[in-house]
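Morning. Coffee machine broken again, so started the prediction first thing and wrote up yesterday's gels while waiting. Chain of 383 residues, entered below exactly as on the submission form.
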Amino acid sequence: MADPDPRLLSIAAAFAGGRAVHSVRPLGNGNINATYRVDGAEGETFVLQRLNTAVFPEPRRVMANLLVVGRHVEERLRREAAGRRERRWVFPRVLTATNGEAWLETEGEFWRAISHVPRATSLDQLETPGQAREVGYGLGRFHALLHDLPCDQLADTLEGFHITPGYLAAYHALCRQQAATATATATAESRPGADPEREAWAHHFVARREALAGVLERAKAAGALPLRPIHGDPKVNNVLLDADTGQAVALIDLDTVKPGLVHYDIGDGLRSACNPLGEETLTPEAVVFDLDLCAALLEGYGAAAGFFLTPAEHDHLFDAIRLLSFELGLRFFSDHLAGNVYFHTARPGHNLDRALVQFHLTASIEAREAEIRGLLARLREGR
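Came back before lunch.
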């Protein structure tokens, strides 16, 4: 093992409460923040992160949200403990640095630390309905703990996030810009991973579904769908499972917590969980939305959070499931056309491959609409 970076050790020590730090090691495979596991000389462990201020330009607002949410959840869990709720649930706790703040700014970087969730693991891909049920329960538990937190206590740290009409408008602006460029043909030929045939298919796919983009935003604007605290990025590996029982015990990566529609989380969670081939498959035409995983995830979600959803929120759940996969495909495709300026890529055409995976997933969801609506009816009925 390489010698620890003295600078990382120094930053970690600022969150260690005066105790010695033994090691700082990279943790996880996230593409946004730099994340490390810190082990203290006395056996304690916590997570250290350098926030990506290009993605989160106002990191203090991110931390303010975490503190508000943490206080609310802590009080809810305290009341539950008094009522003898037996299932374990852990909410990562923000640690205080030696400067008395919940963060440390040094050399132009923004650092924070949170408590480590013990005896827990995560999955990148679901294999069984039992796992899907626990992932659904984890998301539902998170929503249930926060459903009564007033949204005016939270900042919108990612304005425009999951607002599909905004992504569609950006896509059209990009297409117009490229069409108006005198060297448009040369630009297309020089684009990394350019593939005119598959790009034409993707353009056609988007054109046929443009009317979908505003369905949730119109309902929100009409007052049918209320703003609630949401996670913002409830992909499968953000739900931690107990290493012994396999039960969901925590939802992590809370930087995207903000006011929003629970539909964003439910749709994104199902998009992530119900594609057994995964987001990085090289055979997008083989992607199928897995109904068994969907049924189990909805069952787990309903067991934890079904009590607070309004009839109008239920009415728009299928729209959300279809929309969120389409939205991510649109974002990947736009980034491919723009030259891969947002999403990290590992090869030419990577974002085009990713877009086609999401578009084929959307098509599979549409083909299974009747079955999915049947599963949503069971959620609505509480069974």
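The longest strand covers residues 34-40. Going to sketch it on the whiteboard this afternoon.
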